[in-house]
Batch of 2 targets.
Target 1
Amino acid sequence: MNPLVQIAAEVENPLIPPIPELVIGLIAFVIVFGFLAKKLLPNINKVLDERREAIEGGIEKAEAAQTEAQSVLEQYKAQLAEARHEAARLRQEALEQGTALKEELRAEGQRQREEIIAAGHAQIEADRKAASQALRQDVGKLATDLAGKLVGESLEDAARQSRTIDRFLSELEEKAEAAR
Amino acid sequence: MSADPTQVLAFETDCHIFDGCGFPAPGLHSFLFEPIFGDADSSVYFNKTMLLALLGSVIILGFFWAAFRKPKMVPGKLQMVAEAGYDFVRRGIVYETLGKKEGEKYVPFMVATFFFVWMMNLWSIIPVAQFPVTSVIAYPAGLALVIYVMWMSVTFKRHGFVGGLKNLTGYDKSLGGILPLVMLIEFFSNVLVRPFTHAVRLFANMFAGHTLLLLFTIASWYLLNGIGIAYAGVSFVMVIVMTAFELFIQAVQAYVFVLLACSFLQGAVAEHH
């Protein structure tokens, strides 16, 4: 018979731990625990923390970039709106200036036209006066000549002559006035 | 008791069915080993289970040393596997039961315990070794003892002597008249039975698993004669199936062992109820 079977037959309860195995088992465990706790797990924990920070840092960076992009976009939008506003303002100003200029030109034209008309009227009046003066003299001369021929007497006395004619003409004018 | 190499195997190798040889069934003797050196009677000896225990420690440390010695931000394959294992114990067991705040300082211990137990279980199906170290009561008992001492010291440190006793005995005034009975049962169950069942649960699972594997392995060999060969095939298939099953049980038992340790501590750090 196998000697181990014999030992088993006389051996004590299998639930009673043999001390040497217990000691070796604990030593083996303590070795594992010691190395893991003191060296290897702190190592990996450091790296895990670093990795987590790196990932979080990346997220933060992306967030910062996004915020910046947002602010730049708003800036652009504001600038664009400002430019549009400026353009509208310039257009409005130009329109106003154009209108004012047109108004001014029209007024100037009006004034010149009125001046020209007035000058024309004055000229006409002056011409009429000159013509009437010349006419008066011519009519006087013709009348005296005619009268001299009729009476056979030279009415040379210019002064008299003139007085008579003037009186006559004035009477004519008065009659014309009265008839009006 | 001489260390005769021909007697290392616990059954006769030339024994087959129909040879007028009885079935060399596995038994308690399958878990006893002749010392490699030293004398079993003098308590100063070194045997296979001790060798496997120390070798297992070296393997665990070798693995984690290779994985975590120079850990990188972007892990390699080995580091990734080791990280997954570490994270499984840390998050899956310790944080789950004790929470991050209370559990953090127990993480290294629990990680070491888990991988130690698992490795000792794994020896069961590693060729040549093929013996679960945890099926010798001394190994689970040692671990359970460490956990028991830790648990008790946390309990009394946290609650003081009277508070600790109340914590261990489930003291609850609202129970009224049956309180003494409850306290007695709780004390018995927590303080006396728990460490025992903690160790025996692991021991018995590995013991039974190894016995089953032995049974089918020995049967496969024993039946190799005449018509018995057909049955030997069936038995061998069972060896394969049981090996796969053991692989599963080994991991589960390591998990359960650590989970229980954590739940003991959780009871200790819990507030009075």
Target 2
Amino acid sequence: MKTLQNRREFLKKTSAATLATLGMGAPLAGLLSSCETKIPATADSVILLFMAGGMAHTETFDPKKHTAFRKGMEAKEVLSTFPAIPTKLDGIQFSEGLENIASVLDKGTLIRSYQAADLGHILHTRHQYHFHTCYEPPQSVVVPHLGSWIAKEKGALNSVIPPFINIGQRFTVGEAEELKAFHSAGFLGSNYGPFLIPDPSAGLEAVRPPVGMDYKRFESRNKLYNDLIAAGPVGEFGSEYQKESLKQSMEQAYILLNSPEAKAFDLSLEPKESYAKYNTGRFGLGCLLAKRLIDQGARYITVTSEYEPFFGWDTHDNGHTRLKDMKKLIDSPIAQLIKDLDQSGKLERTLVIVASEFSRDMLMEGRPDLKVQDQVEVPDIINDLKNYGMHRHFTDGCSILMFGGGIKRGHVFGKTADERPCKTIENPIKIASIHQTVYHALGIPSDKNYEIEKRPFYTTPDGHGKVEYGLLAKS
Amino acid sequence: MKPKVSSSNNLFYPLKWTMATIGVMMPVISALAETVGSDTPTDFWLWQFFGRLHPMVVHFPISLLIFAGFLELFTLKDFNSKFRPAIQLLVLVGSISTLLSALFGWLHASSEGISGETFDLHQLIGFITSGLAVVLLYFSRKTSQQSLPSTQMIYRMLLFTSGLGIGIAGHLGASLTHGEDFLTEIIPSWDEETEAPESVTINLASFASDLSVEKEIQLVTNVRSVLAHNCYKCHSGAKIEGELRLDEKEYVFAGGENGQIIVPGKPGESELIRRISLSKNHKEVMPAKGKLLKAEEIQLLTLWIEKGAPWPEGVAQQSVYRVAALAPRKPELPPIQPGLEHPIDRLVNKYFQENQLSFGSPVDDRTFLRRIYLDIIGLLPTPKELASFQADRNPQKREIEIQKLLDRTDDYAQHWMTFWNDNLRNDYTGTGYITGGRFAISDWLYTAIRDNKPYNQFIKELLNPSEKSKGFIEGIRWRGTINASQRTELQAAQNVGQVILGLNLKCASCHDSFINDWKLEQAYAFANIFADSTLEVNRCEIPTGKMAKTKILWEELGDIDSLATKAEKLRQLADQLVQPANGRMYRTLVNKVWRQLMGRGIVEPVDEMDNLPWSQDLIDWMAVDFVENGYDIKRLIFQITSSKIYQSPSVSVSSADKLMAEDFKFQGMVRRRITAEQFSDAVSEISAPLFDSVEVKFRPYQLIPEAKSNLGFARASLVANNEFLKSLGRPNREIVSVSRDSQANLLQALELSNGEKLNNSLVKGGEKWASAFGDPKVLAEQLFAKALLRKPNPRELEVARKVLGAKPKAAAVQDLLWVVIMLPEFQLIY
């Protein structure tokens, strides 16, 4: 980077000199320098497929030496509990059970060097807060979610589809309050908050007339509303912003609930064959819903495997066994989503991200240089299959997949060590860079900020974090 | 397309030329593509360099070809006019530069990674035009060799088309660089936010002659104020861009990385003036982010430099931000006028007279009763309560009714619980509880509100807490490491500052503030009072090695013993902050209560008490009166609601910004949206209970047996936060919240239109009402009486009867219920 800086500097000077020699004078020099290019967007929409609970990189997209289970094995031998399989890219391997995603890797970029934050102690929701907002909790103001920033800056792509949709997370499970803390538009205003669809198969319920009411009755209720407002004491309340915003919002909601686009939320309309390819459970159906919504012009969607303490990717025991199920849950739907978007041409302008708040390891809690308090007991000698798996939380090397929306195709970024600690050894990338790269792809400048309580508040802390051009196709 | 009419034999030439050109260009382009098109954008700097020349080079074809076309118009009658040689030269250079532009443009796009719809069109038209330019060049030459009219015609067509193409491509290019709204944004009607700028409150003319030292101080103080509000964000101790600081004298005159910014006596040579005077889109304009300086502000800085940039010693002590007085002040009450005996009315009247405003006539009993019910206990009056109030002939009945409501202690407490929960960041569920990093103060708080604990005592118990009230200053502690500026001691300092003292210490918790005068060390000294062991000062998360002092923010209020235990320090803090001498604290409180009842504070925002009040006398008098009469919040509520101004017609405001604007003119109570809790309680009462008993997280009667409510439903202020309440504006109480977002929005409207919670209540309500009333007219009248406190007018009755039919069915009633509670009339306090 240093040399680039110098080169820029040099260019600045030579260009000025050149212009001077050409005798073009100051006005043209001014012209030249004022012509700064706006960021051209390469993506219109984003889908974040979130592997909540900590997805071990060595068990998924960055496999290391496989050691099969045997009684009496030493814990320190184990780097991966699954054998590696080939992917569409030569020399790049995934962990067994991800064959479908492996077959579409040529359509995207695999990041193997994401370093999650060191927050001193592992608490999933705190790291998730950090992942989704780019800020470490607590903060002195309520910080907006990535999706809220995008909703605010880009607006709805289709005016009847809420610009920030969150699929798959229920807020009735453990650490629910901690989850709510970052599913918020914060100071951007609740209008940019997430539209929550905890259960994708019931997605339609969120956008159809209330239970027990058919469309005909719904329409006549709306008519009744307008009739009664018109019949009421007209003008008594004058022109008033609270009144106007209420009427407008109610109208908008009515249009959405009555719109043809709302059918996108109805998974039962999906052809059986396609439905089956996605239907691995709630996560898979979430991917299907995401696809249908993107087709109708959604702006930002999170589909989460759902975070609930000690469930899903949060493997404190039985890691190997449970990961087989987790891979089954995600492999087919993620691959299908990429294929479908690619086929419809939507992938071109849709950035799909597969990520987790951090990775896992069998022995290391935190990161090699900054170990934190162990939360899971791991015996030195493994006799029981339930101890065979990645049960501790590891932050120094995580995998992220990105597809479409201006991301390079068939590219691998970064590298982790092949021996424990399997930490990042090449091209480390942190959350602020990930956020800035996503914003860049959407054409949102890196210094975007709002004045909150009289001070500037940026998309990333103090606007830090560089766009990682190495991930972008055209840069 | 036109050239087709011309003679066939010429037609092939342009084609051949185009092909030839493309043929020649292709290898070059593809060779370049291999070099630049690969992964990294900076493979070969020269291509990038040429690319960046594109914005400059394009101006040649734009001017030359368009001017050629213009001259060509003068030759329409006589092709061989005297302009001909000039045109030929213009066309020659113009065409070549068109080609160069296209080439450079293409390099620019590939090396900088530009794309997008506008760009694609720009590129397409650019390429087509450059193709045309080649053909044009050929025909231009041909016309000089042979004077065939058809050749001339093709040539002219080509010239005009190229000119047009260049014009369009140029415009699109400009849209790319300057933004699509570059032209339109300055057209007045396009920009809705053209509010009249508030001018600098300084009379420039008064500095015309030679300046006394006093005048100089006045001048430079104004200059510093302009710098502070416009430049400190990037050029002060907190953040130093371009190595330039503007917050202290020595730095201002030292300049930045590009040298001095001020040449005393010569504004024309001063970089400062040059940069702030540039146009909005200029790359070097300052401020680079945010609003430009106003003309008056630029004039002020110019004048100051003209005068030799005087900066007498001792100026630094003067604040550049408005600082409200700390001490209490009791202004004389204006004389009583007939009908205006109430002290608040006398003060408001003075304000009205100064601003050519006047009192409206008092609202009717119905409107008044609805207001005080919602404002004091958060509930709607029942039709029966309304009828008996209307029938009452006692001239004192309004005061009596207010007192009656204040005496409904539990209804009152459950309503005001919402306000204090927001302010004190107290909630029944929320982050931190799972790890024992947070403590609720609900029991203490409820009792304190219910018993109308004197406010000084209330604050003392929050600051020097018992186990039951410690939650406020303990803050939220997350597991793991947290930012230094968010450690619990600093959270306490910030929260006490924001909620109790109406000031912002958030900036100063990290670095010297650039929004007020608070310094990092002051914030730490204040936070240190809440610390077990002395804090080390961190500047922007980096330890400075300095240990914090222990001090209250204002020396006037007394000292804190820095060696004392935490308990002792807190005791001292509590005693000293609640002194009557701390006028600021009591102004903050009366202002907040005023805002709750009147819809807009005397100072806004209510946590920035240094801002200008619309009536200094009013806020000062009320604060002192509050202190002199036992710190009694109920008395304060009585005082406000019994005033004539509270009982005047409500005022509508056209936007939220206008409501908060500094030049806001107070005219009376501002119409407000009811809160999530008020709405929920009203729906629970009219339709059916919204919340299950399992959702209730705080049960006052478990604490105080007589607190058992007679209401048939759980009040919203006592239930755990949920999506329904959240969509209606109840905050996540992760941080203190002194005001709510009350404007409707789509997510809220969706929750109201098809949300499960509301719908469940309405289904039950529909059944209840349908079975209770067989007659549609009676049903409609009863519903209007209960929800809107009035009879339906004939048209409304007609609409209602139409939907209800002869014999109201549950579903129809449900729909009518929904419609009524969605009416703005239902959802506003008016």
